[in-house]
Amino acid sequence: MIGPMEHLDVLIVGAGLSGIGTACHLTRSLPDLSLAVLEARPVSGGTWDLFRYPGVRSDSDMFTLGYAFRPWTSPTAIAQGQAVLQYIRETAEEYGIAAGIRYGHRVVSASWCSERATWVVRVATDAGELVLSCGFLYLNTGYYDYDDPHRPSFPGQEGFTGRVVHPQFWPDNLTWDDQDVVVIGSGATAVSLVPALAPRARSVVMLQRTPGYVISLARRNAGARFGRLPPPWTFRWERTRRATVTSLFWHLCRLAPRSTAAWLIGRVRALLPPGYPVERHFTPPYRPWDQRLCVVPDGDLFTAISAGDAEVVTGRIASFGARCVVLDDGTVLPADLVVTATGLRVRLLGGIALEVDGSPVDPAAVVMHRGTMLSGVPNLAVSVGYANNSWTLKTELSARLMVRTLHYLRRNGYRTVVAAPPPTADRTPLMPLRSGYLQRAQGVPTQGRRWPWRLTSSYWVDALLMRAGRTDGRGLSFRP
């Protein structure tokens, strides 16, 4: 038997970008709600505190990655990681969320009791296990494993006498001055790292097995007229414009992949020296947006390549040497430091073991309802952002939806809401990409074929469906 425990109306798990944003939405709309934010780490910020590698920055513009209720007023659209972290923490302070964050609280399991309409949540702390209860559980744990990134092993790596570092765990005292550096990878982390490492290194090579699509965008905002309009209006205009352009471009890539691929590759060719082998190093074998499109702010990667400060090599690793990386074709890359920007490991629910009335929940067996709730799991929401647009656009849609749902529960005297599975067995992936980390993912919920069990991945369509749809819409059951 579980003795007396602290009970809250809502428990939010995770104090990163989405967790703090969700807490702000709930407290602004339901100020009398008893709420706490549990954070496993000793500080807030999530990804933006964890990632400290050189060049870390926002992977999309801050006008859409930032919160709708707190304008991003800087003209810098692609912001450095520390600026994003400061923005998140200032938001938490301004809206009174910071005082309610409980650090060093790692949620281990959560068990739903239908009779009591309550979640019993077991939490690991430095002082031992703590048990809390809540009426509603909201998981804002991100989509990857904070403790265990994807780190493939390479032949001969044990004999390498240099240093191997994963960007997710960048050491504070690491130096690369006058060293030969090999960055393994071609995603957003690699294209951020290479131009940041180049000025101090002897040589920097971005070693990729397969090229990815990249696009150069201005770091500072050129679309808004700062100073002519009040900041909130400027922010709203720029947020709307950028969300619209990104959504339309994604649809264009789906409808005309050859034309958009040629346009993207042409933009890269124009930023590199004449004769550069763009076909080999910047021409992917897949369609645009089959994997995430990488942003290169102000073309800094191409500037480093053109100046001879960095190099891109496409090939497969045969083995590591004592101070080198050897490729299948015999190419030897000198290496004092190897950075394995090889990606992340998906862990959507934060590794939390869920059960409903004593029965374990298999995340891979449940279906997302309106991109937020899990079929068959009462009073639980999961914050999942867009893969093809700014993460926050979608997580804020979910937060607003849950505000409406909690209002509806209170207004009608209900204690429980649960989503049913879709009427057909057809399933689609939760995220419409073919990136390696998603292909490797296990235990990830799916979507159905039709609304409300499937989102369109188009922000404005999803916004219309989620905002205009009935709170007690299709597939939902409410119980007293």
TrEMBL record:
**What's the cofactor?**
FAD
A Pfam family assignment: Pyr_redox_3
**UniProt keyword Cell division present:** no
State the name under which the record lists this protein: NAD(P)/FAD-dependent oxidoreductase
Q: Which organism is it from?
A: Kineosporia mesophila
Which keywords belong to this entry? Monooxygenase, Oxidoreductase
Q: Which family does it belong to?
A: Belongs to the FAD-binding monooxygenase family.
